[in-house]
TrEMBL record:
One of its GO terms (biological process) is 'de novo' pyrimidine nucleobase biosynthetic process. Pfam families: CPSase_sm_chain, GATase. It comes from the Eukaryota. Keywords: ATP-binding, Glutamine amidotransferase, Ligase, Nucleotide-binding. Heterodimer composed of 2 chains; the small (or glutamine) chain promotes the hydrolysis of glutamine to ammonia, which is used by the large (or ammonia) chain to synthesize carbamoyl phosphate. Residues 60-199 form the Carbamoyl-phosphate synthase small subunit N-terminal domain. PROSITE patterns: GATASE_TYPE_1 (PS51273). This is Carbamoyl phosphate synthase arginine-specific small chain.
Length: 444
């Protein structure tokens, strides 16, 4: 007997179909009941695993060990290599491709508090109209490894070209899933960020992996550009970016507002060519700010001689503070996530910010001429400083946050507006006068 599916039929039509040996499909929506063939899992096999997200039938064991002694066993879904680094956690709910390619995570084992990670895969390598990567903050993964509670082996997103596991494997980054990330975060919050080891394989032998403390290295020198690079060269104002580990979206935030940007190596003495720039920008970056001595010295010299606008973000805030005479200290577990409140001490407004740092300025006593700009509403730590009379200021958070929030993106507008105003006051308004064409006399 043939089954026949119809949306809506009359009684006479149904009788006619039955008389011809055809059984109609009946669905009654009024009572939310459906009469159809019964369905059991025994009759049909489960849906196949998507071909673009292969899953091993025999998962590889992985083990995470904290220096404080705790050990967590799970499953590997990344590269088959061992690693060591500082274990830190982020409370971001989205944006794992941006976080993992953020140079500020250099040398760290990143623990995601979001339980499910990998569900939208990893996007392809596409560039925008300025030549910057659209979906990544740099051209590589910078964290040493990742720790997630539940890895989504099957992904779905219109920009995705590979799974998170495939991406980690391609870049040689180990990853562990199936561990209690809530317990790990409780430990990191209570005792502070700690060193860790990640072992991939059976029978972990952690004696083969030495603990590596990234804060003892100059991480900025590892992520900074080696040569100057320019973007949007025909912009109306010229900004020199001191690259301590700059994110692509910071550069995008500058060039899309009309600035011509030159990215400079971290230890480049920009004071020798400072007259070529209408403003100086000090970028974000990883690790211990006391390791970037040359950058601090260059900025200190600029504070005494360069009277044009200077703006810093994240590591830039720490560098500017050190150059002004402040000290820094290491936070217990840092501030990393997309939901950190920062209070503007000038107008009393509180904005939700994206943050990624493990150090902060000691701002109990401010140097002469300087004042606090922003304060963390959670722990009271410094979130920004500014000069009282000169155009120098910086913030600890990320106004350009890719993945959000965008509450403080206006700080880029303020900085570039100040740069343009300063340039007009310095050079005056330049206008373009077209060439006058004089018609030739006609010969009669």
């Amino acid at each position: 007997m043939t089954n026949f599916l119809t949306k809506s039929i009359s009684v006479s039509r149904a009788v006619s179909l039955v008389s011809h040996g055809i059984k109609p499909f009946v669905a009654t929506r009024g009572l939310a009941t459906v009469k159809d063939q019964s369905f059991t899992l025994n009759k049909k096999p489960p849906p196949p695993i998507a071909p673009y997200a292969p899953v091993s039938l025999k998962p590889t064991p992985a083990t995470l060990k904290l220096k404080s002694g705790e050990v967590y066993s799970g499953t590997s879904f990344g590269a088959n290599v061992h690693t060591s680094g500082e274990a830190v956690f982020t409370t971001s709910l989205v944006g794992y491709p941006e976080s993992m390619t953020d140079p500020s995570y250099r040398g760290q084992v990143l623990v995601f508090t979001q339980p499910l990670v990998g569900n939208y895969g990893v996007p392809g390598i596409f560039k925008d109209e300025y030549g910057l990567l659209k979906f990544f903050e740099s051209d590589r993964i910078h964290c040493e490894g990742i720790v997630v509670g539940d890895y989504a082996s099957r992904y779905s997103h219109w920009t995705a070209v590979e799974s998170l596991g495939e991406w980690c494997t391609r870049f040689g980054v180990p990853a562990i899933s199936g561990v209690d990330t809530r317990a790990i975060v409780h430990i990191l919050r209570d005792q502070g960020s700690t060193l860790s080891k990640l072992y991939i394989g059976e029978d972990p032998d952690f004696s083969k992996i030495p603990y590596s403390d990234p804060n003892e290295r100059n991480l900025v020198s590892e992520v900074s550009t080696a040569v100057p690079v320019s973007y949007n060269p025909f912009g109306d104002i010229k900004i020199g970016v001191v690259d301590c580990g700059v994110k692509n979206n910071i550069l995008r935030a500058l060039v899309k507002r009309g600035a011509a940007v030159t990215v400079l190596p971290w230890n480049f003495n920009f004071n020798k060519v400072s007259d070529q720039f209408d403003g100086i920008f000090i970028s974000n970056g990883p690790g211990n700010p006391t390791k970037v001595v040359e950058t601090v010295q260059n900025v200190r010299h600029a504070l005494a001689t360069y009277k044009r606008p200077i703006f810093g973000i994240c590591m830039g805030n720490l560098v500017l503070g050190l150059a002004a005479g402040l000290d820094v200290y290491k936070l217990r577990f840092g501030n990393r996530g997309h939901n950190v409140p920062a209070l503007n001490v000038l107008d009393g407004k509180c904005q939700i910010t994206s943050q990624n740092h493990g150090y902060a300025l000691q701002d109990n006593v401010m140097p002469n001429g300087w004042t606090k700009y922003y304060v963390n509403a959670n722990d009271g730590s410094n979130e920004g400083i500014r000069h009282k009379t000169l155009p120098f200021k910086s913030v600890q958070f990320h106004p350009e946050a890719k993945g959000g929030p965008q509450d403080t993106e206006f700080l880029f507008d303020e900085f570039l507006s100040k740069v343009r105003t300063d340039k007009i006051q310095r050079e005056g308004i330049k206008t373009f006068v077209p060439e006058t064409f004089i018609s030739q006399p006609q010969v009669v």
